[in-house]
Specification:
Strand order of the largest sheet: 2-1-3-4-5
Bound molecules: 1,3,4-trihydroxy-5-OXO-cyclohexanecarboxylic acid
Structural class: alpha/beta
Radius of gyration: 14 Å
Oligomer: single chain
Number of domains: 1
Distance between the termini: 18 Å
Length: about 140
Protein backbone atom coordinates (compact mmCIF):
# COMPACT_ATOMS: atom_id res chain seq x y z
CA UNK A 1 0.00 0.00 0.00
CA UNK A 2 1.23 3.50 -0.77
CA UNK A 3 2.39 5.85 1.95
CA UNK A 4 -0.27 8.54 2.45
CA UNK A 5 0.40 12.27 2.44
CA UNK A 6 -2.76 13.82 3.90
CA UNK A 7 -3.37 17.55 3.77
CA UNK A 8 -6.16 19.27 5.66
CA UNK A 9 -8.26 22.38 5.20
CA UNK A 10 -7.30 25.29 2.95
CA UNK A 11 -4.18 23.54 1.66
CA UNK A 12 -5.95 22.99 -1.67
CA UNK A 13 -5.25 26.67 -2.35
CA UNK A 14 -1.53 26.26 -1.77
CA UNK A 15 0.37 28.63 -4.07
CA UNK A 16 -2.46 31.14 -4.00
CA UNK A 17 -3.14 31.12 -0.26
CA UNK A 18 -1.02 33.64 1.70
CA UNK A 19 2.07 32.92 -0.44
CA UNK A 20 4.18 35.09 1.88
CA UNK A 21 3.60 32.39 4.52
CA UNK A 22 3.06 29.19 2.53
CA UNK A 23 5.04 29.84 -0.68
CA UNK A 24 4.10 29.68 -4.35
CA UNK A 25 4.05 25.90 -4.97
CA UNK A 26 0.52 24.73 -5.77
CA UNK A 27 -1.07 21.61 -4.26
CA UNK A 28 -0.86 19.83 -7.63
CA UNK A 29 2.85 20.65 -7.81
CA UNK A 30 3.32 19.50 -4.21
CA UNK A 31 1.59 16.20 -5.02
CA UNK A 32 3.88 15.68 -8.03
CA UNK A 33 6.97 16.51 -5.94
CA UNK A 34 5.88 14.10 -3.19
CA UNK A 35 5.44 11.28 -5.69
CA UNK A 36 8.91 11.99 -7.13
CA UNK A 37 10.54 12.30 -3.69
CA UNK A 38 8.85 9.07 -2.66
CA UNK A 39 10.04 7.26 -5.77
CA UNK A 40 13.61 8.44 -5.13
CA UNK A 41 13.33 7.02 -1.60
CA UNK A 42 11.76 3.75 -2.80
CA UNK A 43 8.23 4.61 -1.64
CA UNK A 44 4.96 4.69 -3.49
CA UNK A 45 3.16 7.86 -2.36
CA UNK A 46 -0.45 8.95 -2.61
CA UNK A 47 -1.29 12.60 -1.85
CA UNK A 48 -4.77 13.73 -0.80
CA UNK A 49 -6.29 17.01 0.41
CA UNK A 50 -9.67 17.66 2.00
CA UNK A 51 -11.62 20.51 3.54
CA UNK A 52 -13.96 18.01 5.25
CA UNK A 53 -12.87 16.76 8.64
CA UNK A 54 -14.88 13.52 8.41
CA UNK A 55 -13.11 12.62 5.18
CA UNK A 56 -9.73 13.00 6.86
CA UNK A 57 -10.99 10.86 9.77
CA UNK A 58 -12.05 8.14 7.31
CA UNK A 59 -8.61 8.19 5.69
CA UNK A 60 -6.87 8.00 9.08
CA UNK A 61 -9.13 5.12 10.18
CA UNK A 62 -8.27 3.24 6.96
CA UNK A 63 -4.58 3.91 7.59
CA UNK A 64 -5.02 2.41 11.08
CA UNK A 65 -6.74 -0.67 9.63
CA UNK A 66 -3.98 -1.20 7.08
CA UNK A 67 -0.93 -0.11 9.15
CA UNK A 68 -0.11 2.49 6.51
CA UNK A 69 2.51 5.20 7.23
CA UNK A 70 1.10 8.73 7.13
CA UNK A 71 2.57 12.18 6.55
CA UNK A 72 -0.04 14.52 8.01
CA UNK A 73 -0.50 18.26 7.67
CA UNK A 74 -3.81 18.63 9.47
CA UNK A 75 -3.60 22.42 8.99
CA UNK A 76 -5.95 24.31 11.35
CA UNK A 77 -7.49 21.04 12.69
CA UNK A 78 -4.06 20.40 14.21
CA UNK A 79 -4.83 22.96 16.84
CA UNK A 80 -8.22 21.90 18.14
CA UNK A 81 -9.67 18.64 16.74
CA UNK A 82 -9.90 15.95 19.42
CA UNK A 83 -11.36 13.62 16.77
CA UNK A 84 -8.06 13.93 14.91
CA UNK A 85 -6.20 13.36 18.19
CA UNK A 86 -8.12 10.09 18.62
CA UNK A 87 -7.66 9.04 14.99
CA UNK A 88 -3.90 9.62 15.19
CA UNK A 89 -3.70 7.70 18.47
CA UNK A 90 -4.87 4.55 16.66
CA UNK A 91 -2.10 4.55 14.05
CA UNK A 92 0.55 1.85 14.34
CA UNK A 93 2.80 2.66 11.36
CA UNK A 94 4.95 5.83 11.54
CA UNK A 95 3.09 9.14 11.59
CA UNK A 96 5.02 12.28 10.63
CA UNK A 97 3.50 15.69 11.40
CA UNK A 98 4.34 18.38 8.84
CA UNK A 99 3.70 22.11 8.75
CA UNK A 100 4.92 24.37 5.98
CA UNK A 101 5.23 27.32 8.36
CA UNK A 102 6.53 27.19 11.93
CA UNK A 103 3.30 27.36 13.96
CA UNK A 104 5.13 27.84 17.27
CA UNK A 105 6.70 31.07 15.94
CA UNK A 106 3.46 32.58 14.69
CA UNK A 107 1.61 35.26 16.64
CA UNK A 108 -1.71 33.39 17.01
CA UNK A 109 -1.54 31.52 20.29
CA UNK A 110 -4.00 28.89 19.00
CA UNK A 111 -1.23 27.65 16.66
CA UNK A 112 1.04 26.80 19.58
CA UNK A 113 -0.77 23.58 20.45
CA UNK A 114 -1.09 20.37 18.41
CA UNK A 115 -3.33 17.31 18.78
CA UNK A 116 -1.04 15.42 16.38
CA UNK A 117 2.35 15.86 18.09
CA UNK A 118 1.69 13.38 20.97
CA UNK A 119 1.27 10.60 18.38
CA UNK A 120 3.91 11.64 15.85
CA UNK A 121 7.24 9.87 15.41
CA UNK A 122 8.65 13.26 14.46
CA UNK A 123 7.48 16.80 13.66
CA UNK A 124 8.86 18.76 10.70
CA UNK A 125 7.82 22.40 10.54
CA UNK A 126 9.08 25.68 9.18
CA UNK A 127 10.86 24.01 6.25
CA UNK A 128 8.38 25.04 3.57
CA UNK A 129 7.48 22.40 0.98
CA UNK A 130 10.80 20.65 1.59
CA UNK A 131 9.37 19.45 4.90
CA UNK A 132 7.34 16.88 2.94
CA UNK A 133 10.53 15.52 1.36
CA UNK A 134 12.13 15.26 4.80
CA UNK A 135 9.03 13.49 6.13
CA UNK A 136 9.08 10.93 3.29
CA UNK A 137 12.80 10.30 3.84
CA UNK A 138 12.11 9.77 7.54
CA UNK A 139 9.45 7.17 6.66
CA UNK A 140 11.73 5.49 4.11
CA UNK A 141 14.48 5.22 6.74
CA UNK A 142 11.97 3.77 9.26
CA UNK A 143 10.65 1.19 6.83
CA UNK A 144 14.22 0.07 6.22
CA UNK A 145 14.59 -0.70 9.96
C1 LIG B 1 -0.14 24.87 8.67
C2 LIG B 1 -0.07 25.75 9.94
C3 LIG B 1 -1.45 25.85 10.58
O1 LIG B 1 -1.38 26.68 11.73
C4 LIG B 1 -2.43 26.48 9.62
O2 LIG B 1 -3.73 26.47 10.19
C5 LIG B 1 -2.44 25.84 8.28
C6 LIG B 1 -1.18 25.37 7.69
C7 LIG B 1 1.22 24.84 7.93
O3 LIG B 1 1.38 23.98 7.08
O4 LIG B 1 2.08 25.70 8.20
O5 LIG B 1 -3.47 25.79 7.61
O6 LIG B 1 -0.44 23.54 9.07
Amino acid sequence: RPVLVLNGPNLGRLGRRQPEIYGSTTHDELAELCRAWGEAAGLEVEVRQTNHEGELLDWLNDAADTATPVVLNAAAWTHYSYAIWDACAQLTAPLVEVHISEPSQRPEVFRHTSVVTPHAATVISGQGIDGYRQALEFIAAKSGD
